[in-house]
């Protein structure tokens, strides 16, 4: 039983990290119909930036905020210089964002080092609570809480604020929003920056969770995020949340009970969803 | 002609080896171009087929011994497996928008990479294993000619393929999917067919690749292999088989050259950055690549000459060039 609870917490924490990556991806896709293959690169930059800032400032909060700022800045540059010229052309978008991924993860090796870096858990969040015989690792609970907060915040902004209204309207009908006198390009940039910032936040949170970061981690997690987005349905935030939790849980349980199948499990999940409902659990269109 | 005479002139084994690799990567890039350039589908897992071809040769040579018969059988097995794999992935994802194929191929190739790393009893993981090759192709010059002949054959074969009615339909799909569908073509079948042809050809190149190295490890399944194909095709020119060959030569030469430069400044060790930036610029500014851009310049020049200025003709030309990768 204790083992099961541990696996549950583990799976939820991984799920939340994947969710942070996937939510930006799906938000950007929903509004701009751009599938950002460079998203994993932003995630890795968030991780490196977070570890570096934590080392420099010694404050974990500053590290998280700094990572988000780095992510948003990179997102801004990416949207302006790389994505803007290829709006509406899917093949070019896919190709060019992959190029960005390549450059971003190689730049990591130049700016920091090609070798993996160690990442520490801040003292306040290290250690664990013991309730009876159940051991709850603090940092994992922290990740779950942050993930839930981000989910609620995104939902709240989308549902309750004017910006959210515009974004949701933009998802439905871009031309109409533009015709109503709203500068949709600015909204695009904003959403892209938020998505990039969330990815960087996910990276910064992941670093102490896994203890070590390396430049290829972006691609690894990007694959997970893609699986999540496909399972949840492209453009659906609730779908991403549900799928991320599914992927996280299946990952942690399979790694314990059937270690050979841990990655294959996610793929299997995706294949089943694609066969039954190609548009994903919450997807409206294929 | 120069290429045929070359082995008898040069003594440099490494140069010969590099040319052999260029031929092999040209085959790989051409197979990728069938997908990207002629059908307009983006795959990020083309290394799967390369790796399947590579491992079927490696494992077969290791288990059954080095004989021509078993080598040919291994290449055939690689092709069949690749065809099956591309059929499955294609059927799962090609019904959907282009994003899905890109994501799914990425995920599948990730899965295969993990599988190859874990299945150590057969693949020996990342350490890989060396194996014997049949007597006949131990000679580098013979291998050089084999690679050259196969490249030419693949070029002719694929050129034939794209001019068949099926190939024409594929190009119609690239230009306008909806319209092709409304003409009554079942586009999914055509797309799957294209991915099978590409998969089989890529498998062949993978088989040849490990023959030159006499060694195979899991890097054949890595993202870098897919990136190779992508860079070569994009920089050389999508939608032109010659472009894939030129792209392969440029990337391989530049790779060698930049690795040499790493002696002077460590930044050149990160040569992928240069390729990545070049790649982004090419996608943004010259979506037709080197060959495509030169070709359109040439057409413009020829068109402009006889009738002085013909703005309508020029604009349709540039439009069709822009469309080379324009598929939504």
From TrEMBL, chain A:
GO terms for biological process: amino acid transport. It comes from the Bacteria. InterPro entries: ABC_transp_permease, BCAA_transport_permease. It is a multi-pass membrane protein. Belongs to the binding-protein-dependent transport system permease family. LivHM subfamily. It is found in: Cell membrane. The chain crosses the membrane at residues 7-31, 51-74, 94-112, 132-158, 179-206, 264-284. GO terms for molecular function: transmembrane transporter activity. It comes from Paenibacillus selenitireducens. One of its GO terms (cellular component) is plasma membrane. Pfam families: BPD_transp_2 (PF02653). This is Branched-chain amino acid ABC transporter permease. Keywords: Amino-acid transport, Cell membrane, Membrane, Transmembrane, Transmembrane helix, Transport.
């Amino acid at each position: 039983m204790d083992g099961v609870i541990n696996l549950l917490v583990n799976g939820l924490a991984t799920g939340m990290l994947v969710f942070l990556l996937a939510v930006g991806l799906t938000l950007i896709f929903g509004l701009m119909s751009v599938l950002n293959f460079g998203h994993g690169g932003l995630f890795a930059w968030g991780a490196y930036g977070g570890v570096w800032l934590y080392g420099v400032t010694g404050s974990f909060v500053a590290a998280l905020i700094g990572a988000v700022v780095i992510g948003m800045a990179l997102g801004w540059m990416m949207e302006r210089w790389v994505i803007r010229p290829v709006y509406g052309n899917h093949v070019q978008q896919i190709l060019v964002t992959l190029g960005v991924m390549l450059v971003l993860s190689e730049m990591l090796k130049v700016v920091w080092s090609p070798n993996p870096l160690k990442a520490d858990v801040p003292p306040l969040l290290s250690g664990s609570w013991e309730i009876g015989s159940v051991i709850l690792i603090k940092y994992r609970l922290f990740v779950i809480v942050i993930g839930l907060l981000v989910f609620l915040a995104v939902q709240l902004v989308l549902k309750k604020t004017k910006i959210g209204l515009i974004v949701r309207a933009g998802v439905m009908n871009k031309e109409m929003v533009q015709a109503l006198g709203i500068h949709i390009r600015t909204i695009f940039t904003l959403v892209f920056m938020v998505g990039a910032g969330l990815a960087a936040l996910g990276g910064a949170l992941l670093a102490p969770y896994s203890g070590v970061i390396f430049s290829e981690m972006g691609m690894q997690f990007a694959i997970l995020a893609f699986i999540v987005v496909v399972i949840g349905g492209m453009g659906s935030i609730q779908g991403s949340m549900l799928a991320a939790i599914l992927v996280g849980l299946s990952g942690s349980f399979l790694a314990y009970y059937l270690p050979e199948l841990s990655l294959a499990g996610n793929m299997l999940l995706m294949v089943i969803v694609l066969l039954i409902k190609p548009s994903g659990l919450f997807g409206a269109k294929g | 002609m120069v290429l045929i005479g070359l082995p008898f002139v040069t003594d440099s084994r490494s140069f010969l080896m590099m040319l052999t690799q260029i031929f092999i990567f040209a085959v790989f890039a051409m197979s990728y171009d069938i997908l990207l350039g002629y059908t307009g589908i983006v795959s990020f897992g083309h290394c799967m087929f390369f790796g399947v071809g590579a491992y079927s040769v490696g494992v077969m040579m290791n288990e059954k011994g080095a004989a021509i018969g078993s080598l040919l059988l291994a290449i055939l097995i690689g092709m069949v497996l690749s065809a099956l794999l591309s059929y499955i992935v294609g059927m799962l994802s090609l019904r959907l928008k282009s994003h899905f194929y890109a994501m799914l191929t990425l995920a599948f190739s990730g899965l295969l990479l993990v599988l190859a790393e874990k299945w150590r009893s057969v693949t020996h993981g990342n350490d890989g294993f060396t194996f014997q090759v049949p007597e006949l192709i131990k000679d580098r010059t013979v291998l050089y000619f084999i690679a050259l002949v196969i490249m030419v054959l693949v070029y002719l074969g694929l050129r034939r393929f794209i001019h068949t009615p099926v190939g024409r339909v594929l190009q119609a799909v690239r230009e306008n999917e909806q319209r092709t569908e409304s003409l009554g073509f079942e586009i999914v079948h055509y797309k799957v067919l294209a991915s099978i042809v590409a998969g089989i050809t890529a498998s062949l190149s993978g088989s040849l690749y490990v023959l030159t190295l006499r060694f195979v490890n899991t890097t054949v399944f890595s993202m870098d292999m897919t990136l190779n194909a992508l860079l070569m095709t994009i920089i050389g020119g999508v939608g032109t088989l010659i472009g894939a060959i030129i792209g392969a030569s440029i990337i391989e030469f530049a790779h060698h050259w930049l690795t040499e430069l790493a002696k002077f400044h460590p930044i050149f060790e990160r040569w992928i950055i240069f390729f990545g930036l070049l790649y982004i610029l090419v996608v943004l500014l010259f979506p037709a690549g080197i060959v495509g851009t030169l070709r359109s310049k040439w057409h413009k020049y020829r068109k402009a000459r006889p009738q002085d200025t013909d703005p309508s003709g020029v604009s349709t030309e540039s439009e069709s060039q822009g469309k080379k990768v324009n598929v939504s």
